[in-house]
Structures are given as C-alpha cells and as structure tokens.
Design brief:
two-stranded antiparallel sheet, about 110 residues, 5-stranded antiparallel β-sheet, mainly beta
Length: about 110
Amino acid sequence: NNTRSTILTSNGCSAPTGIAEINAASYINLYPNPANSSIQVNFLLPTTTVLTVKAYDMLGNEMMTSEVHKMGEQNITLDVSSLSTGLYILVVNTDQGNIAKRFTVVH
C-alpha cells in the first residue's frame, strides 16, 4: 500500500507535516557536560544571529533564558547551580531557526 497521509486543518486545507531544521548543531559546543555549577556555550555561527538561549527540563518547562542577539563566534556562561540533577535541553534560537542540544546537571 503506497498511500500518503496528510493532516487536514478545520477548514479542509492541508497543513505542512515537516519542520525546517538548521544543520548547525555541530557549530555549538557545551562544556563541561555533565555540568555542576556552570556550563560554557560556544557558538561558531558566522552567518547566523543568535537571539536567545533557553534551557528546558524534560517536562518542557523553561528553566532559564539568556538574551544574546549577536552573530559569529562567542562564548556565554550559564549558571546551572540552581537546577536539579538531571537531563536538560538547551535550545538556541537564531534568525534562521532553532538548534537543540542536550546537557546533564550533576551535583
């Protein structure tokens, strides 16, 4: 069977089923990982402007945010000492889309 499924909106129009992704995850480094009190975020995005950096817990709750609004290579330090031990998702919002990286906090 070679049928394709589409998602229909309430007015009968087809909605897109894909999400545009930036293939730039390799240009963002987190260290140390696992982290204890702080984590360094290194960006090397020469043609992309980083707008915000946000950390989410595994339930999707926003735990911290940092405004950046810069392009090119840069380093920021995030204080993770107030976060509980566990796994988190760092979402880097850029003018071209979002990039997500995982990190662990261990106390």
